[in-house]
Recover the amino acids of this structure.
């Protein structure tokens, strides 16, 4: 009998147990808590049915957090993939393309908290960006104030995430043989047309996966909001900038007895929205597979 | 017209934008380094000038004042232990899942894949509850003490296992089948065969997954703030956030930039060293 058949269960069990006991089981417990009123171990747990969910639907702060998360997913996603597609038009032939791909990926390996602290310094009311604006005769802006910070966060998100999708899509585009493009050039296709009719159709599968990845990732956005709203003070992020994850964190860690039932309900709602969005994204990106004959 | 837009305007504008983006990334990283060597007043007044005299003591003051030494230690230990544990738990599982012809292998891979799309919010409340209960339970009944950093380590590992198993299973499938034969002839037990024969062959894939986890755990923020938020137990991102949020009172801007450098530069060095492999690992594991 082969080694891997003999060792099947002993090799599989540690991972299976860790994952089941510390990830799957807690998730199920979280679903249970979402139907109760509870403020943690030691306090009494009372069944509430769907009341937590109903209350959340009528909660304006949560509605804002929910909308914000959604806007980030849609607007951020449109910008990220827009830039990714544009990069793909030129990155195949551009001089220094390997270097460009390496450097635009860089934000992926850097802590977003560090980026927030550094960029927050520049965007401060009296920071360098406003100094430059004033100097050139423009009005300084309250970049990190409650009205504008959300747009700055989306900008930061697009800046830090696009490189990853460029890398992902370009690794698929690399596999397209050069002669296809040579033929296209012979019949006079422009670079944009080459992208539109060759690169995009042939990398569509990877785009479908990328879109799902982005959707799943965008619903968990947390760090970047803290990074951009901390700006020198320890106060909680302003409501217009909160995402679901941030709002949940505030409820769990906030002062007084935490409403864990409500926080758990937020988690379950995120799970449901994730599932719905995955199905939707799959449906939108579904297409007949294009293959080179 | 079509030529003008599709062949000249659009590609040229994109190329310029890409280079501007590259310049911005490089400038930002260099600028953070330069700022970290300035005196706090200089940081504010001349943010784009070179330091008058390099102030290396920003690092020693950040190291001491903001408890960055403890945070750096926590980060190093949590990151290294965590990444080793993740690979140690995931690699054997991925190996048997990739090779076995048992009927449970396919569903088991899918079961791990589900973990990739469960958002962390679903498990946020349970984690807090478990953290509190474990602390009380261990302190009252078992050891008489407990350290939240252990809880953090355990959850970091548990939440990273699905991705590691998923990527490594794909990788192990691509390995040639002949490698086991050497082990069979050798007559070694499964564990020895795995450590001595399979792991050396699978080393590139294992290294990639290890490094990806190093980067993920090093930058971990949400779990760290949730499980181990106290000054002596927090990791570097949490410590930097703490330092940043007290800037209004302390105004130690030089120290803050030193903190940013301590958090960011190790990962950049790692990226320069292993860059291609990191990008390939992240992208290959996902597009499979």
């Amino acid at each position: 009998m082969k080694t891997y058949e003999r060792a099947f269960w002993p090799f599989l069990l540690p991972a299976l147990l860790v994952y089941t006991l510390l990830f799957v089981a807690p998730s199920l417990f979280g679903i249970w808590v979402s139907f109760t009123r509870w403020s943690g171990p030691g306090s009494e747990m009372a069944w509430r049915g769907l009341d937590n969910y109903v209350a959340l639907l009528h909660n304006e702060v949560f509605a804002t957090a929910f909308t914000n998360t959604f806007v980030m997913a849609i607007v951020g996603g449109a910008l990220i993939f827009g830039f990714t597609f544009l990069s793909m038009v030129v990155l195949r032939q551009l001089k220094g393309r390997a270097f460009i791909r390496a450097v635009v990926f860089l934000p992926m390996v850097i802590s977003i908290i560090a980026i927030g602290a550094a960029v927050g310094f520049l965007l401060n009311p009296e920071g360098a960006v406003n100094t430059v604006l004033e100097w050139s005769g423009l009005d300084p802006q309250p970049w990190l104030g409650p009205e504008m910070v959300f747009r700055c966060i989306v900008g930061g998100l697009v800046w830090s995430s696009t490189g990853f999708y460029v890398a992902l899509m370009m690794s698929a585009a690399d596999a397209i043989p050069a002669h296809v493009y040579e033929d296209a050039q012979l019949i006079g296709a422009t670079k944009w047309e080459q992208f539109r009719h060759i690169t995009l159709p042939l990398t569509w599968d990877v785009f479908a996966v990328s879109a799902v990845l982005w959707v799943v990732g965008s619903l968990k956005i947390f760090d970047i909001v803290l990074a951009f709203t901390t700006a020198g003070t320890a106060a909680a992020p302003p409501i217009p900038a909160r995402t679901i994850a941030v709002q949940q964190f505030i409820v769990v860690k906030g002062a007084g007895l935490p409403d864990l039932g409500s926080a758990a309900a937020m988690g379950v709602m995120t799970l449901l929205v994730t599932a719905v969005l995955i199905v939707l994204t799959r449906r939108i990106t579904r297409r007949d597979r294009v293959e080179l004959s | 017209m079509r030529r003008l837009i599709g062949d000249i305007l659009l590609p040229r504008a994109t190329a310029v934008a890409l280079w501007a983006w590259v310049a911005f990334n490089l400038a930002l990283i260099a600028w953070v380094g330069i700022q970290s060597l300035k005196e706090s007043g200089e940081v504010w007044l001349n943010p784009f000038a070179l330091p008058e005299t390099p102030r290396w003591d920003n690092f020693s003051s950040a190291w001491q004042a903001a408890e960055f030494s403890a945070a750096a230690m926590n980060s190093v230990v949590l990151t290294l232990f965590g990444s080793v544990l993740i690979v140690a738990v995931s690699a054997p599982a991925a190996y048997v899942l990739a090779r076995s012809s048992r009927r449970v292998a396919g569903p088991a891979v899918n079961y791990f894949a589900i973990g990739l799309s469960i958002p962390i919010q679903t498990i946020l409340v349970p984690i807090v509850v478990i953290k509190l209960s474990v602390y009380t339970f261990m302190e009252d009944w078992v050891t008489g003490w407990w350290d939240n950093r252990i809880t953090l380590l355990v959850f970091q590992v548990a939440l990273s296992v699905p991705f590691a198993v998923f990527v490594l299973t794909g990788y192990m499938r691509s390995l040639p089948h002949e490698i086991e034969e050497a082990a069979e002839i050798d007559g070694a037990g499964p564990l020895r065969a795995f450590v001595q024969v399979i792991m050396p062959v699978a080393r590139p894939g294992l290294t990639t997954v290890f490094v990806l986890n190093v980067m993920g755990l090093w930058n971990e923020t949400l779990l760290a703030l949730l499980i181990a938020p106290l000054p002596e137990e927090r990791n570097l991102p949490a410590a930097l956030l703490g330092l940043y949020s007290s800037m209004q009172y302390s105004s130690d801007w030089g120290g803050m930039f030193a903190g940013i450098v301590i958090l960011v530069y190790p990962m950049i060095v790692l990226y320069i060293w292993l860059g291609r492999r990191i990008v390939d690992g992240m992208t290959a594991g996902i597009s499979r």
